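Customer escalation, tier 2.

The customer says the design service returned an amino acid string that "doesn't look like it belongs to this structure." They asked us to rerun it and document both sides in this ticket. The original structure tokens are below, unchanged.
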């Protein structure tokens, strides 16, 4: 009796015969290939080797890019060096420390908003005691 016809018919099927037929079909259809034993140390060494080779390649690419960009930078600065340098304007006198800060309220509000955001509180929970310009 064919296995397919047994399933299609309403007759009772011997489960041992079905199990044997399925087992035989599986073993003949896909022969078991024995895997070569792989040493764990070999796998670790290959993984680390691939990673370090990749890192070395990245380092070499970065050095190559630095050399190429340095070459472009030299080409751009060479014509600028030939042009006469303009005379620098006299430096403005530094403002005295008691000078008025422009837009003081806006600057204080921005600093308080940033501090409140960082602290995770509301701006109304902060109290500004002093706000001084550091030269």
């Amino acid at each position: 009796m064919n296995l397919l016809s047994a399933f299609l018919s309403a007759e009772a099927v011997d489960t041992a015969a079905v199990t044997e037929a399925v087992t035989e079909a599986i073993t003949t259809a896909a022969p078991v290939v024995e895997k070569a034993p792989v040493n764990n140390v070999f796998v670790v060494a290959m993984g680390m080797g691939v990673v370090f080779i990749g890192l070395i390649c990245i380092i070499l690419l970065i050095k190559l890019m630095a050399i190429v960009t340095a070459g472009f930078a030299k080409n751009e600065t060479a014509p600028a060096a030939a042009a006469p340098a303009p005379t620098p304007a006299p430096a403005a006198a530094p403002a005295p420390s008691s000078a008025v800060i422009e837009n003081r309220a806006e600057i204080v509000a921005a600093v308080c908003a940033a501090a409140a955001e960082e602290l995770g509180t509301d701006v109304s929970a902060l109290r500004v005691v002093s706000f001084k310009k550091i030269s």
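Tier 2 assessment: The sequence is consistent with the input. The first helix runs from residue 3 to 8. The chain has a mean pLDDT of 77. Sent an explanation to the customer and offered a walkthrough call.
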